[in-house]
Specification:
By secondary structure, the chain is an alpha/beta fold. 31% of the residues lie in helices and 19% in strands. It has one domain: 3-Layer(aba) Sandwich (Rossmann fold). It is built from 13 helices and 17 strands.
Length: 385
């Protein structure tokens, strides 16, 4: 068994090769849900759905978003109606993004589709009303700012209706996985709400989808918040999956993997299992997306060295053969009960451990590339496991 942490497009691309290296039945994928939004009353889970559609062989692989060949008649009609009614701007909605209080709500990745209109946040009271899973990321469907295909929308409607019938997000995801005939075990990172909010240098607080889809990652980042993470729990299914060897794919360390690491219990689980991480950088060059800007915004060096600092639990890395980064040894805290094994407070000792590196060409443009990187991951796991 092997478990992948997935967000954005990096890990889904790697999975194209992973299913050649491992049996699909032996693969679990834990998907980021910090990017999720409730749009027009429907819960949209971009990172879950990228894996769902890719493994279900229906993903639009030109955009890595939505269903291949999907139509957008409903999306177009929503915009026509808004224009005809004169409500195409945000003047009548709270468009300031999430406020700073956890009680009041909102004021990949390369996976969020084209922006079509400015986001229209629901008001603060609405952000914490209704479905708990959608807290702090509720948007009006008027002139929706994310382009949702018609078949894609049917997935969101079904997901939301199953949630309203009382199923958890994990149960709902597994139901959809059955509908798309998935062999892998696809898991959301939690059944609790976690919202990725970007704090800009101009003192705005906006949801990640506004930052990336509507504003094309243009606002300078001051910080990133994972609202709700401290109160969220990993499910039993996630903890079981994390007991197996783990591969952290070449996803954005801040907004794709960061929300998972912010949930209590996940980092400690990763520290107890073999972990190999694939850098989304070659030195200080990122392959795609806003990872560099976001890492700088939260205080990490935008580079492979910064990725290593963000993943202190990783035992090994897969780096591009042109990446000359020298990884520092990772800190590791051990407890020594000393002479009295029953005392409540053990003595803590910090030591370091060297981290194994496998080198390969880490660019992934097709399934053959993905297989090459997946094989490097397997070699690394064999060394550290």
């Amino acid at each position: 068994m092997v478990t992948f942490l997935a967000g954005g497009t990096g890990t889904p691309k790697l999975l194209d090769g992973a299913t050649r290296v491992w049996d699909s039945d032996d693969i679990a994928v834990i998907a980021n849900t910090g990017d999720d939004v409730e749009l027009g009353g429907h819960l949209v889970c971009p990172d879950v759905d990228t894996v769902l559609f890719a493994e279900g062989d229906v993903l639009d692989r030109e955009t890595w978003w939505g269903i291949d060949g999907d139509t957008t008649a409903t999306h177009a009609e929503l915009h026509r109606l808004a224009a005809a009614a004169g409500v195409t701007d945000c003047a009548d909605s709270d468009d300031s993004g999430p406020t700073d209080s956890d009680d009041s709500g909102p004021t990949d990745s390369d996976d969020s589709g084209p922006a079509t209109a400015a986001p229209r946040y629901l008001d603060d009271d609405a952000q914490t009303a209704g479905r708990r899973i959608a807290r702090w990321r509720r948007f009006s469907g008027v002139a929706e700012f994310m382009e949702i295909g018609d078949r894609d929308r049917a997935v969101h409607l079904t997901r939301t209706s199953l949630l309203d019938e009382g199923r958890t997000l994990t149960e709902t995801t597994r139901t959809l996985a059955t509908a798309f005939d998935l062999d892998i075990d696809l898991l959301p990172m939690s059944d609790d709400p976690v919202a990725t909010l970007v704090h800009t240098e101009s003192d705005e607080t906006i949801h990640f989808q506004e930052y990336w889809v509507a504003r094309r990652a243009e606002p300078p980042v001051a910080d990133v918040e994972f609202r709700g993470a401290a109160d969220a729990d990993p499910t039993d299914a996630v903890l079981d999956a994390l007991a197996e060897p783990v591969v952290v794919g070449p996803s954005n360390p801040v907004t794709s993997i960061g929300p998972m690491l912010a949930i209590p219990g996940i980092q400690s689980a990763l520290a107890e299992t073999p972990v190999v991480a694939v850098s989304p950088f070659v030195g200080d060059r990122v392959f795609s997306g806003p990872a560099a800007e976001l890492m700088s915004g939260v205080g990490y060096e935008p580079s492979t060295a910064g990725v290593a600092a963000a993943y202190p639990f990783a035992d090994a890395f897969v780096l591009d053969h042109e990446d000359d980064t020298e990884l520092e040894a990772a800190p590791e805290t051990t407890q020594d009960p000393g002479e009295n094994a029953d005392r409540e407070t053990a003595l803590e000792t910090t030591v370091t451990r060297d981290r194994h590196v496998e080198y390969t060409d880490t660019r992934i443009d097709d399934a053959d590339d993905a297989e090459r990187v997946a094989l490097a991951c397997r070699r690394a796991l064999e060394v550290i496991g």
